[in-house]
Design brief:
CATH class: Alpha Beta
Radius of gyration: 28 Å
Order of helices and strands: EEEHEHEHH
Number of strands: 5
Number of domains: 1
Helix content: 40-55%
Shape: elongated
Distance between the termini: 95 Å
Structural class: alpha+beta
Strand order of the largest sheet: 3-4-5
CATH topology: Double Stranded RNA Binding Domain
Low-confidence stretches: none
Largest sheet: 3 strands, antiparallel
CATH architecture: 2-Layer Sandwich
Length: 141
């Protein structure tokens, strides 16, 4: 059992692990050993997540989520398979924790009186500057 929050825990049987070869530098080791980890978690079919949390996970995951609702996390930061496995699991837990807490509602605020006055003052100065820049035409009577 993997504890994510006080109310959410995941069963390890819900996670799918696949080990692949890492990309990038690493010499012969990178060509022989499958150290990169792909963690697959079917968010859509998980009975432990509420619909609201599933919706937010889909939003947070972005391109890492397939159209079937499977979240794929690839970890290849470390040289060792076990460390990459821990890294992928921690990233999954972080995504679910972030989705479990509802986003804070933004409280709209009006600009203060001093800010409004400063804006109008700056506007008048800019207008005066441009007026001085304009060519003066002499009107003959």
């Amino acid at each position: 059992m993997i504890f994510v929050t006080d109310h959410i825990s995941l069963d390890e049987s819900e996670l799918g692990w696949e080990f692949v070869r890492s990309s990038g530098p690493g010499g012969q080791n990178v060509n022989k050993v499958a150290t990169a980890v792909q963690l697959r978690f079917n968010v859509a079919a998980s009975p432990r997540l509420s619909d609201e949390v599933k919706r937010r996970v889909r939003q947070i995951a972005g391109r890492r989520m397939t159209s079937e609702g499977v979240l794929i996390i690839t970890a290849q930061r470390f040289r060792y398979q076990e460390r990459n496995r821990e890294d992928a699991l921690q990233r999954l837990i972080e995504i679910i924790r972030q989705a479990a807490s509802p986003p804070k509602r933004r409280i709209r605020t009006a600009p203060s009186q001093s800010v409004k006055e400063a804006r109008l003052k700056e506007k008048k100065l800019r207008s005066a500057r441009k007026q001085r820049r304009a060519k003066k035409t002499i009107v003959e009577e």
